Amino acid sequence: MKILSPKQIAEADHYTIKNEPISPVNLMERAATKCFEWISSNFENTKSVKVFCGTGNNGGDGLVIARLLKNKGFSVKTFILPLGNKQTEEFSINLKRLDDVCAKIVFIEKQEDLPKLSPRDLIIDAIFGNGLNRAPEGLSKNLIQYINEAKATVIAIDIPSGLFSGKSVTAKDSVIKAHHTLTFQVPKLAFFLPDNKNFIKDWTILDIKLNTSFINKLPTKYHYFTAQEAKATYKARNDKWAHKGTYGHSLIIGGSYGKIGAPTLSAKAALKIGSGLVTAYIPKCGYTIMQTALPEVMAETDHEIELADFTPTINATVIEIGPGMGTSDLTLAGFKKFLQNNKTPLVVDADALNCLALNKELLTLLPKNSILTPHPKELERLIGKWDNDYEKLEKIKIFVEKYSIILVVKGAYTLTATKEAFYFNSTGNNALATAGSGDVLTGIITGLLAQGYSPREASCFGVYIHGRTAEIYTTNHAPETFTASLIADYLSDVILELQE
Ligand SMILES: NC(=O)C1=CN([C@@H]2O[C@H](COP(=O)(O)OP(=O)(O)OC[C@H]3O[C@@H](n4cnc5c(N)ncnc54)[C@H](OP(=O)(O)O)[C@@H]3O)[C@@H](O)[C@H]2O)[C@H](O)CC1
Ligand SMILES: [K+]
């Protein structure tokens, strides 16, 4: 699914109005009706709804929602914050329509006009939407702060007021902290960025039927990888003549004394996602552990307690390197030698990333389209510090272009960054915040590459699958009890779901 800029959304809006055709006020009615339906079914027992509107079209949406809720029997009060002397035409039409149903409407002209708010109120934030072009100040800033202090449940329409959909927020005290955001047609880039986690919690995309063929033609670097994209990526197995060689050979290089679990988890994940063959290249101390834990996996060994020689003998389709490997001098020296001689596509994680961060010149030795899977701290070691998330995205872009690689930046919305496009993942939850979860992710990506998925597909799809296991698990288990070993056990559920 595309993530569009405010300008592109306005263009899609205009195109739909002209070509469907539909009048602007009817499009507003359609959009706001979707919000109303969501609110009335999720908050049917709510006694008091307070709707705060600006005087642009976001405010117009608020007026329609107020009218529809009132007609449905909710107790509704509407508060209007005049934005200068202007009202959009659709706002004015809907103000009249709201007035006609004898609704309670209050204009907020000064601080004293702010109403009493109770934590039991349901607040609808329709002050600013896509049209925000500067940080709110004065009365609008005060209103936003006042709403945030009320500790009431806040539903934001389209986007929390004060949050820019495509640029950084400097005044963090003038943004609505929404519990839920009902956004129109496409998600906004701001939703995926950790800097905004206090403003955006849950959100729902409402399909307001903007022209899809127009949207399909709009260029964008940013995408949201959902079940739809996952289904389109999945390659069902239907080759009767397949043998284990058909599905590739994954080589997992990693481990050190006390950290054999990491490559074991990766190897298990590569195997369980369908890699035809898996070999682990580990220190000698891990031999019995690996062979006992995973009888299907072959093992080759290096020095006694750490990797030093890096001399696997097999001809792998893909190599994962790094889990549990450590960064000792001996390991680092061997890793350098390995990179100088290796031509096989790599998935690089954990200590191998730290070795690269310590020796940036090694980055040039990575085969084209190698996949690096850092968590935010590892990312910072690779690309340097950033002031805000938009600067981080820019640095990521420069980094992937410079080295012709793919970055999988782990987080609540794990980002797969390729030279061509950035994909935010839609699945996962905090059950994945558990030891070894990252090792399983790299194993899944490695196993997908071995089977012939492209590096972009393996990254986006692997991240999606990994996240989905946690969602399925937590439908009937406590998130605290999820472990990395369990992830592999739920891969089958995810794949069966994709086949539906
Ligand atoms: N296609 C869709 O998604 C649809 C969206 N709808 C809704 O429309 C809004 C966008 O409406 P718009 O009127 O363009 O913009 P806003 O309502 O967000 O803002 C109104 C005006 O506010 C002024 N502004 C901007 N920043 C500030 C500020 N910091 N302080 C004070 N005033 C500010 C600005 O005017 P200026 O002339 O003062 O610059 C804005 O124009 C979208 O979000 C949806 O909710 C439709 O209902 C259906 C289709
Ligand atoms: K809003």
From TrEMBL:
GO MF term (any one): ATP binding
Residues bound to K(+): N58, D125, S161
Alphabetical list of InterPro entries matching this protein: Carbohydrate_kinase_pred_CS, CARKD, Nnr, Ribokinase-like, YjeF_N_dom, YjeF_N_dom_sf
Keywords of this entry: ATP-binding, Isomerase, Kinase, Lyase, Metal-binding, Multifunctional enzyme, NAD, NADP, Nucleotide-binding, Potassium, Transferase
Signal sequence, start to end: none
Role description: Catalyzes the epimerization of the S- and R-forms of NAD(P)HX, a damaged form of NAD(P)H that is a result of enzymatic or heat-dependent hydration. This is a prerequisite for the S-specific NAD(P)H-hydrate dehydratase to allow the repair of both epimers of NAD(P)HX.
Entry's cofactor comment: Binds 1 potassium ion per subunit.
Domain YjeF C-terminal: from-to ranges: 227-498
Name of the protein described by the UniProt record: Bifunctional NAD(P)H-hydrate repair enzyme
Enzyme Commission no: 4.2.1.136, 5.1.99.6
Cofactor(s) the record lists: K(+); Mg(2+)
UniProt-annotated binding residues for AMP: K410, G411, A412, Y413, T414, G438
The protein's assembly and partners: Homotetramer.
GO biological process assignments: metabolite repair; nicotinamide nucleotide metabolic process
Reactions it catalyzes: (6R)-NADPHX = (6S)-NADPHX; (6R)-NADHX = (6S)-NADHX; (6S)-NADPHX + ADP = AMP + phosphate + NADPH + H(+); (6S)-NADHX + ADP = AMP + phosphate + NADH + H(+)
Domain YjeF N-terminal: 9-216
Domain of life: Bacteria
Family of the protein in this entry: In the C-terminal section; belongs to the NnrD/CARKD family.
